[in-house]
Amino acid sequence: MSDYKDRGMMKYQPFDSLTNSLAMKHELQLKKNKITKPTLSEDQLEQIDLKIKEAYYNNDSIKIYYYSNGKILNIINKILKIDNIKKIIVLNDNTKIFYKQIVKVENI
Fold first, then answer.
1. SS3 track for the chain
2. Closest CA to 30 of 68, 75, 72, 69
């Protein structure tokens, strides 16, 4: 029989310790997946504002697509408050979304 002992992941540790390649790889992957914020026309902004106010006054659920950290995220909830001075929408779960983050709105 041979006296072979597998060192497992120990053999790869010198490569990771030089540049911390795993963290760099993860950071590069995040940068690669980021997108730029879409620009909206005045008509689109007016439609978004109209749908938000309609959902607020009718107490309907609404699906909001918003831009955050290079991604387009969405949330479904009811609107608790619209702050026109600060340009913020407060949802029932106290999530705050700025008007300038909103990309698309759908009434549900």
1. CCCCCCCHHHHHHHHHHHHCHHHHHHHHHHHHHCCCCCCCCHHHHHHHHHHHHHHHHHCCEEEEEEEECCEEEEEEEEEEEEECCCCEEEECCCCEEEHHHEEEEEEC
2. 69
pTM (2 decimals)?
0.72
Neighbours of 79 (CB within 10 A): 21
| Residue 13 in tokens | 């540790």
State pLDDT tens for residues 29-77: 888 888 888 899 999 999 999 999 999 999 999 999 999 988 999 999 9
* CA-wise closest residue to 53 among 2, 99, 103: 99
- Closest among 107, 92, 98, 108 to 37, alpha carbons compared: 98
